[in-house]
């Protein structure tokens, strides 16, 4: 699943040789065939694609180092040379103006998404990269991969701001809070998410509850809730302020991706089943609704006078 696009009015999903564009309001779907692109697999599949937030553009990194933009309105495709090594992860900035690309050799570049001109190039980290994520203001970029470390860079200068270690295994998902003051990280086999304070880099909390690796993490648009998806076939919602688990949603298959809609009302869950990939779009309970339900349960649990 690439994510929401066109201001949240559409959802892009994809597999190795196709893209589907859904309109959640009507259920309409358009399919696009693309040349097969085998994802890197090094303990975990890399996410070499993303959806442009403000318009239906699908970005795809190729194993030969080229980048592609697919315009899903016109069907046009633009291709340009991105890296010498295979591209293993890509991410748009929240405003869609910048695109970050990372490779199997740990090189990271920032591109102007309109002109496709290289804006910044970071010092290579020497590790296969699995994920990249911009901060909400677009000023920072976090990246991780086949290493127990997470790197945080200044987008404008390419300067490395932080190196967060101690995960003990490969980090497969990272996400900034909407105020850019917290970074969430997860690993391939540990059943927890870690919250790091920014800019200090101090570990703030470890959210434990899953029994297998957590491979997807994202903050709600209002920053009050964190969602985690795991190989244990569960999605959990957490209170960011108290670090408490709020809701557990069970699924029939391994969860691979989780995405909030831009208005926070929808939650898209990606699974991989024996029949192939699936995406379910759920109504995301608001923080207030969860709090009200908890209060009602606590009241009902009180002993009668």
Care to describe what's here?
The chain is mainly β and 305 residues long. Mean pLDDT is 89; it is low at 39-44. 5% of the residues lie in helices and 50% in strands. The chain has one helix at 287-301, and strands at residues 3-5, 10-14, 18-23, 28-33, 49-51, 57-61, 66-71, 77-81, 87-92, 98-103, 108-112, 118-121, 129-134, 140-145, 150-154, 160-164, 171-176, 182-187, 192-197, 203-208, 214-219, 225-230, 234-239, 245-250, 254-260, 266-273, 276-283. It is built from one helix and 27 strands. Strand 6 and strand 7 form a beta hairpin. A four-stranded antiparallel sheet has the order 1-2-3-4, with no helix packed on it. A four-stranded antiparallel sheet has the order 5-6-7-8, with no helix packed on it. The protein has a domain at 1-165: YVTN repeat-like/Quinoprotein amine dehydrogenase (Methylamine Dehydrogenase, Chain H, 7 Propeller), CATH 2.130.10.10.
């Amino acid at each position: 699943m690439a994510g929401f696009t066109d201001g949240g009015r559409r959802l892009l999903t994809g597999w190795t040789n196709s893209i589907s564009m859904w309109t959640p309001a009507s259920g309409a779907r358009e399919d696009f065939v693309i040349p097969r692109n085998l994802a890197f697999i090094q303990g975990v599949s890399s996410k070499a694609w993303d959806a442009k937030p403000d318009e239906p553009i699908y970005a795809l990194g190729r194993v030969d180092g080229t980048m592609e933009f697919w315009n899903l309105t016109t069907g046009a495709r633009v291709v340009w040379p991105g890296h010498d090594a295979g591209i293993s992860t890509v991410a748009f900035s929240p405003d869609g103006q910048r695109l970050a690309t990372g490779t199997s050799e740990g090189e990271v570049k920032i591109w102007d998404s309109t002109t496709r001109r290289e804006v910044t190039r970071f010092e290579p980290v020497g590790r296969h990269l699995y994920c990249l994520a911009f901060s909400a203001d677009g000023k920072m970029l976090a990246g991780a991969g086949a290493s127990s470390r997470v790197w945080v860079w200044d987008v404008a200068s390419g300067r490395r701001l932080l190196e967060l270690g101690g995960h003990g295994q490969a980090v497969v998902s990272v996400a900034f809070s909407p105020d850019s003051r917290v970074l969430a990280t997860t690993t391939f086999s540990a059943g927890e998410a870690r919250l790091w304070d920014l800019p200090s880099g101090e570990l703030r909390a470890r959210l434990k509850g899953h029994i297998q690796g957590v491979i997807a993490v994202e903050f709600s648009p209002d920053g009050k809730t964190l969602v985690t998806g795991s190989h244990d076939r569960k999605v959990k919602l957490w209170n960011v302020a108290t670090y408490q688990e709020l809701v557990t949603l069970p699924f029939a298959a391994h969860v691979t991706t989780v995405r909030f809609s831009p208005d926070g009302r929808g939650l898209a869950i990606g699974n991989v089943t024996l029949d192939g990939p699936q995406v379910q779009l759920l109504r995301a309970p608001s923080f207030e609704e969860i709090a009200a339900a908890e209060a009602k349960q606590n009241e009902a649990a009180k002993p009668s006078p």
